[in-house]
Amino acid sequence: MTGILHVADGPFVHAVTMDDLVKYHGRDFLNGLAQAFVVIRTATERLGDGRPLDRRRIRLVLGLDPPGVLDGFEYLTRAFTDRRVIVDRRLGIGPESFDGNYYFEVQYEGRRLVLVLRDGIIPEGYSQMARRGFARLLDPEEERRWSAGKRDIADRILARPVAESFHVTGPTPA
Questions:
Q1: Region 103-128: what's the mean pLDDT?
Q2: Which residues pair with 170 in a beta bridge?
Q3: Could you give the percent of the chain with pLDDT greater than 70?
Q4: Can you say whether the dihedral through the CA atoms of 116, 109, 78, 51 is positive or negative?
Q5: Among 29, 55, 98, 157, which is least packed by CB within 10 angstroms?
Q6: Is the Cα dihedral 174, 52, 77, 16 positive or negative?
Q7: Burial call 96-117: b when 16+ CB within 10 Å, e when fewer
Q8: Model-level pTM?
């Protein structure tokens, strides 16, 4: 159960579920959506002391930005629209993705929280399959396995305590 994540937008507080992110995204990059959801949920717990973070004051540093990650963080923070995100694929921190590394940094009110995906969460060969998938080089069976892999990664991340899926550092001064 992923529960409900509350995010503030000025005086308004929005209740957001994974289902909301999936509807907004409209595709099957559930793994990236789950990562964004867990990162912001953890930031709320540790940077907001459980109170909703004002999404317009969140800044992000990411080691990658595939579709699910991008849409998940955009829905939750509007950081891409408001240009409060840095994507640096050269960070080299965290397991390798097809387009960078699984590194997530949330900055809020002068503090930061860093989450790095643990080794073993992404199955062996998944990044190569994703690279081929984005290049539209997968046959129908490979496409099915890639889609199933995205769902499996999301299910594992959402079902586990955050410390089992991510190395978490902070909060520390930004």
A1: 95
A2: none
A3: 99
A4: positive
A5: 98
A6: positive
A7: ebbbbbbbbbbbbeeebbbbbb
A8: 0.95
